[in-house]
Design a protein that fits this description.
Helix content is 0%, strand content 36%. The protein is an all-beta fold and 366 residues long. It has a domain of 142 residues: Hexapeptide repeat proteins (UDP N-Acetylglucosamine Acyltransferase, domain 1), CATH 2.160.10.10. The strands form three sheets. It has a 19-stranded mixed β-sheet, with no helix packed on it. It has a 17-stranded parallel β-sheet, with no helix packed on it. Strand 1 and strand 2 form a beta hairpin. The N and C termini lie far apart (89 Å).
């Protein structure tokens, strides 16, 4: 097939091996008329005709295509975008702005790479994905996903998921899908799965094989001009789901690990001005119902906190302890063994419970 463009003698000011092109035919899909000037290419092989998807690849404005890179199908490169190395742009893909595509990256479908977005390595962007961030290694984005942060390793983002914020990172084998949003500096790694309508925001690190799903929210808010912003770390096989809310709002940290599950409407909160404090929930603990965990609490082993129960202060709950109903455990209390605290009970002060006690009713135990 006859080439749809030819090289002119005009060279790029940025690279003297690149020559501006001129259309030799009308290309209506790109609103190009015969004789119109385009961008810059290194060789006639950088733009292809009727490649897989039909149509004519084109580069316009001061866009550059070099090396063994190829723009084909109905794909177009615009503005100051740079396509280089072995990268492939095809289908109806658009690369514009100051975007850069390199390595063995492939962009196709209706994908758009724009702004200062970069795609490199063996990354794959397709479907209706939008990238203004950075995607590299063997990562992929597809569906209706939007990438404003960093996607790397073998990570995948798809469906309607969004990665927002230049310092937000999804890496390794992590997957984000459904309507999940990862934003404002959060990082997910390992084999983490974030999906459903989950929101992960701020100073949060999620690792290993954790799942965050449904309508759950994990916040580690970085507050402007406040060095006491909280952080949240979730590890191992922990699972956050339902309407659960993990909120690192204060100076303290929240660590959730092992096989812990937090679900229903449970809320775990690091309170303002609790510097050097840390909530730790580990083992096979389960936090659910409308329960609340705050301050500097530690919950371990097979403990169960549910109903409208509250665990506050420096309380430590472990063993097979169950706290439920409208019970409240606070201050420096330590509870282990097979203890049950329920109904409207309040356990406070320096109390230590470690056998098979059952604290119920309106009992106040100190």
């Amino acid at each position: 097939m006859e080439k749809h463009f030819e090289l002119t003698e005009e060279k790029s000011a940025l690279n003297s091996t690149l020559f501006r092109i001129k259309a030799t035919i009308d290309i209506p899909e790109h609103e190009i008329r015969r004789g119109d000037l385009g961008g810059f290419v290194e060789s006639l092989d950088n733009l292809a005709e009727d490649y897989s998807f039909g149509g004519y690849g084109w580069v316009s404005n001061d866009g550059c295509v070099s090396g063994k890179a190829c723009v084909s199908g109905n794909a177009i490169v615009k503005d100051q975008a740079i396509i280089q190395d072995n990268s492939q742009i095809y289908g109806n893909a658009i690369v514009r702005g100051n975007a850069q595509i390199s390595g063995n990256a492939a962009i196709w479908g209706n994908a758009i790479i724009e702004g200062f977005g970069t795609v490199g390595g063996n990354a794959r962007i397709y479907g209706n994905s939008l990238v203004l961030g950075h995607v590299y290694d063997d990562a992929s984005a597809f569906g209706n996903s939007e990438i404003f942060g960093m996607l790397c390793g073998f990570a995948k983002v798809f469906d309607n998921a969004k990665i927002v914020g230049s310092n937000t990172r999804v890496a390794e084998d992590a997957m984000v899908y459904g309507n999940a949003v990862i934003s404002n500096g959060a990082g997910i790694f390992g084999e983490v799965r974030a999906y459903g309508n989950a929101i992960i925001y701020g100073n949060v690190g999620i690792y290993d094989s954790v799942e965050v799903l449904d309508n759950s929210k994990v916040f580690g808010i970085d507050m402007p001009n406040d060095t006491n912003s909280g952080s949240v770390n979730i590890y191992n096989f922990a699972k956050i789901y339902g309407e659960a809310f993990i909120n690192g709002r204060g100076g303290g940290e929240i660590d959730i690990l092992d096989f812990t599950e937090v679900y229903d409407y449970a809320c775990i909160t690091s309170i303002y001005n609790f510097q050097d404090k840390k909530i730790i929930i580990s083992g096979k603990a389960k936090i659910y119902g409308f329960s609340r965990i705050e301050d500097n609490v530690k919950i371990f082993d097979n403990a169960r906190i549910f109903g409208d129960a509250k665990i506050l202060g420096n309380a430590e709950i472990s063993g097979y302890t169950k706290v439920f109903g409208k019970a409240c455990v606070r201050d420096n209390v330590k509870i282990s063994g097979n203890v049950k605290v329920y109904e409207n009970s309040v356990v406070s002060g320096e109390a230590i419970l470690c056998q098979n006690e059952q604290i119920k009713g309106k009992t106040t135990y100190r």
